[in-house]
Amino acid sequence: MLIRTVVGVDIGNSTTEASVARVGTDGSVRFLSGALTPTTGIKGTAKNVDGVAAAVGRSMSDAGIPLSELDLLLLNEATPVISGLAMETITETIITESTMIGHDPRTPGGRGLGIGVVVGFHALSELGGTSSAAGPGESVVVAVPAGEDFEVVARTINAACARGVAVTGAILANDDAVLVVNRLDSPIPVVDEVARIDAVPEGMLAAVEVAAPGQSIRTLSNAYGLATIFGLDADETRLVAPVARALTGTRSAVVVRTPSGDVGDRVIPAGSLHLIGALKRATVDVSDGAAGIMTAVRRVGPLADVVGESGTNTGGMIANVRQSMADLCGHPLTEVHIGDLLAVDTFVPQEVRGGLAGEVALENAVALAAMVRTAHSGMKAVADAVRERLRQVGAERIDVVVGGVEAEMAVLGALTTPGTDKPLVVLDLGGGSTDAALITPDDAVVAVHLAGAGDLVTKLIDAELGTGNLELAEEIKRCPLGKAESFFHVRLENGTAQFFDSPLPTTAFGRTVTLGDSGMSPIPTRHSIDRVRAVRRAAKERVFVVNALRALESVAPEGDLRRIGFVVLLGGCALDFEIPELIADALAKYGIVCGTGNVRGTEGPRNAVASGLVASYAAQSASVGRSVGA
């Protein structure tokens, strides 16, 4: 019996995996080692050579076999797939003239609600007594410019109160609220860090509210509370409703309104999508939200192409994705089409236009992920380039063969997971796309490729938390959270406590932190641990759970999920600490056995395609051997 050294290589969107085995002509297989390296270039292009060579070299070294003994390398049929993302804001809060909504500084001072006419700090000393500007008992809110010493501010306010001026609140440019309040004879609510203090209009009615620590304001976040304070009618109350919405959940706020000031909440033209299906077409406006877009996608399915409205972010994103694929593959732009589209509702922090202190409101937005896929494979060119590279480094007798369709190889590898049987569905959870393949009891394979996976989750977390840092958002996605409550213990997100023998880093104290393999990393955000966790889980549910159900409905016999016996999760995202649980919970009601794959009983959710390539080759060798023997 002839024994050959064979390596199966899976070129994925993010990683390249290799599996080394000894294969006999009788179909016997003995797996020796595996390796994982980052994919170089776009999957299915000649730039993959460096990643393939690294994976093969590492796996052969781990197996203790020199490259000169390598006989055959099997590549998957890696068709290029490119995904693109766009974030479309569909509403915007606009403030005109001198209306101001208060931001939420870290350390406001005092507590309660103060209502009064805005007066400048330098004019405060003139009030009281016989002053005609403001008599004894008249309520005022003081606007203090930058550069004023907090002790001077406190003394001036105390003196004004002693003269009979009712100072009910203060607005400070400096970050001095607590220092000022600590020196007042009668504490008042104070909001600080108002950058554009010079734009606060004097002589107009204002309201300042500060809640107790751990609580949020009640009056200024209520549209009817604003109407009561400013004497608004029904139409004016409707106009200031966005102000109340923007202030919900904050600990402090300021609202100043002139008679001509106006606040509006308008829909921004977010562009439209023209969906082209095999039999139907539809046009849907992005402002209809994710539900409207996905309803239209299902209505025209299967999707053949998507065209975005020119001059919008949506149109630009789709055009860029299509152009990138055309450039990579050398195909005319007319031959590259959008194969799938996923829309997800989210919220994006947007600076309020016309605000005076950098106020931010959470506005409705739609995240779009689109995927293009070419029908033309460039794997022959990849195979030739890999053969040449490996022969240069010692694998002189190697032959490189494109070994099989990726979906079929994935299910063959997944079937080596202990406890599985047909019918079985593989869910490959990657970075740019979610791929699914069904193998039926008679070995027929059906596959589907959907846009949206780990990269979209990262972008949703980044957008909703306003981190402005995709690396930080990626870490939040991958790691559980904790809150450093002392220098020696962390309160975990599940409510339990973890204690340490040595003190924690000072940068972590009092902060929400990620608990990764490399240690504890503080998150530079003011969001609570519960808020960060809720955003993380919601993003995963809206992408992975939604795409898992979409994929299973596409490959299940007659769309009936109850006819699927087993679902095996593969790919990097299957190693996530909560994604498998979220998907399993969603599939439990269909009686589906769902879990993270364990390829060959040793590899976990990795190496399925590479192992499937080797298993397929071994089966073919056995079939040829039997034919020769007959």
From TrEMBL:
InterPro entries linked to this entry: ATPase_NBD, DDR_dom, DDR_swiveling, DDRA, DDRA_swiveling_dom_sf, NA-bd_OB-fold
Diol dehydratase reactivase ATPase-like domain location: 284-617
Superkingdom per UniProt: Bacteria
Domain DD-reactivating factor swiveling residue range list: 95-263
NCBIfam families: reactive_PduG
Protein name: Diol dehydratase reactivase subunit alpha
Species: Mycolicibacterium litorale
Underlying gene: ddrA
